[in-house]
Design a protein that fits this description.
It is a single chain. The protein has helices at residues 18-35, 37-40, 72-108, 110-124, 128-139, 143-153, 155-170, 173-180, 185-221, 233-240, 249-276. By secondary structure, it is mainly α. It has one domain (37-281): MetI-like (MetI-like fold, Orthogonal Bundle), CATH 1.10.3720.10. α10 (233-240) runs antiparallel to α11 (249-276). It starts with 17 loop residues before the first helix and ends in a 6-residue tail after the last helix.
Length: 282
Amino acid sequence: MLRDLGLTIRRPRFSRSRRGMAGLAILLCIALGALGADWLAPNNPYAQHLLERRHGPSIRHPMGQDELGRDNLSRVLHGARLSLRVGVGAALIALAAGGLLGVLAGTLGGWPDSLIMSLADAVLAFPALLLALSLIMSLGRGLTSATVAVGLAAVPVFVRLARIGVIRARQQDYVLAARAVGVPPGRLLLRHILPDIAPPLLVQAMLFIGTAILEVAGLSFLGLGAQPPAPEWGAMIAQGRGAIFAAPHIVLFPGLAIMLTVLGFNLLGDGLRDVLDPRAAL
């Protein structure tokens, strides 16, 4: 009918989102660097050259050398693997646990809903980084522990988002109609409700990957995440902070890597939100 009136409904394609395409381009470059680190890295990221410590950028070492004479470029490339792994891992933990609890709360209602949301609100009362620090004290130091801690600390955010999505979806006309004709609850959830709440959860997960990378880098900076000699960006900044004025390149390049990665995920998340938002179809 709208076409008869000369109107068209066209869902925006991802390629039309400048922010999304910019974020995708940044992340593709970082992902290619991470996947090809073994071939792109000019030197062994663990090889020490103490007589060349703190040397600035040169043709042989484009990003200079760190406190122990290790090649910064090689360590940044190999560090991309660790950072992407922990970011995606933490997001998957938060999405899986939070999404499941949120769907249960929105579907069951009653006392299960009250219990789950009370626990989520109690967890949200603590700053995410402080909660992650508390969890690491129980799990122990290490990159895996930091990933799990950051992911668990973000679970309440996904719980609330999934619960709100389920409650809204259950009030939609097509869900009410499916329920009226006798569609089983399990099929109703899988065929109608979950596809409706998946887009906002996906966008939130994409945005959270950048936040997780930043938080794990902060934990590594404090000595609770990646342990030496792992080439993790936060740990690299921590190891070079004592020479920040004498040799700023030691902390500059891993800091730029963190900034670009977080920026890339934020831009990509914004682009996905523009595409997946139903209101953008008008």
